[in-house]
Amino acid sequence: MRVAARLALALLAWLALSAQREPVLVPAVSQSLIEVRQGFTGARLLLYGAVIDPEGAGRTGDYDIVVVLKGPTEPVRIREKERIAGIWANAGLSDFRSAPSFFAVASSRPIAEIVDERTATIYELGTDFIQLSPSGQIEPEVQARFAQGLVELRRKQGLYQENPGGVQISEKVLYQARINLPSNVTTGRYTAETFAIARGRVLASATARIEVVKAGLEGQVVTAAQRWSFLYGLGAIALSLGMGWLAGRLFARS
User: Fold this and answer.
1) pTM of the model
2) What are the phi and psi torsion angles at 64 (to 5°)?
3) Integer-rounded Cα radius of gyration of the chain
4) Where are the extended beta strands (E) located within the chain?
5) Nearest-angstrom CA–CA distance, 199 and 197
6) Treating both helix axes as pointing N-terminal to C-terminal, what angle do 216-227 and 229-253 enclose, rounded to 10 degrees?
7) Which residues contact 223 (CB under 8 A, 6 or more apart)?
8) CA 147, CA 151: separation in Å to the nearest integer?
9) Cβ distance 133 to 96 under 8 Å?
10) 244: exposed, middle or buried (C-beta count within 10 Å: 0-12, 13-18, 19+)?
11) Is 21 in a helix, a strand, or coil?
12) CA–CA gap between residue 104 and residue 152 (Å, rounded)
């Protein structure tokens, strides 16, 4: 059934786009909504689609596919530790205004074999090419060290991933890639950008969106905090005072 669905997708795309001369990407994702509930252990996304090349021009089947999945951006502060007099202490810090909370790249071949460094930088085709937007005055060498530290830290957390060879191309038209979302992902809107590349040049690109939201009791708490922030704050204060009073009474009796 999956093969039939993919063939139908390719056929519909061909009928809709046959009048165009440039190749066109038709992307899709297995889940456009991911609900994070208590006990959430992560999710495995399937990103798939078709590349329609009406003109052909010898390009059909002679292209690579790169998929870049990004999470919502967030400000990040990175601290560097040094051993001073036998004690580890903070020795420096750097702020980044818009680091992606999640970043994963899957490609049909290693990126270095597909595009040059300039193109990879423009399209952020790899964790080495993430545009982190540092803030403040800092030497380029120091900035690069902090950026590398941030990338390495999030790699260990499973939040930054690279999978060369993670995209499979079949029938010279269809492609698919699987990307794992860990349990510690940030909620928000994720974008899956797909690029069709041939001879080092991006021929086509397309974007699909994925929403990661909290569900269940946690989701209800988040919704209440957003919709009725004032009442939520009063309730939190009242709960804190009540717990403090109860603890005082219990300790007083003992």
Assistant:
1) 0.74
2) -115, 155
3) 24
4) 24-29, 33-36, 43-52, 64-70, 73-84, 87-100, 103-107, 134-135, 160-164, 167-170, 174-181, 188-198, 201-214
5) 7
6) 120
7) none
8) 6
9) yes
10) exposed
11) coil
12) 13
Contact call for residues 136 and 70 (beta carbons, < 8 A): no
pLDDT at position 51 is 87
Distance CA 246, CA 218 (A): 25
Residue 174: phi, psi to the nearest 5?
-95, 150
Element (H or E) spanning 252, and its range? helix 229-253
Please state, in angstroms and rounded to a whole number, the distance separating the CA atoms of residues 236 and 164: 47
Find, among 153, 23, 27, the residue nearest to 99 by Cα: 153
> What pLDDT score does 98 carry?
87
- Cα–Cα dist 254/249, whole Å: 9
pLDDT in tens, 11-25: 555 555 555 567 788
Cross-strand pairs, 189: 211
Averages of pLDDT over runs of 10 residues in the chain (254 residues) are 54 53 84 89 92 62 88 86 63 82 96 95 94 76 84 93 94 90 93 93 93 70 52 64 65 62
Phi/psi for 244 (5° steps) reads -65, -45
Note the helical H segments in 18-139.
117-123
Sheet holding 167-170, edge to edge: 24-29, 43-52, 174-181, 167-170
pLDDT of residue 119: 95
Using alpha carbons, list the distances in angstroms from residue 142 to 76, 77, 124, 136, 253.
Answer: 16, 14, 21, 12, 58
Q: How many residues in total does the chain contain?
A: 254
Q: What is the CATH number of domain 2-214?
A: 2.60.40.3880
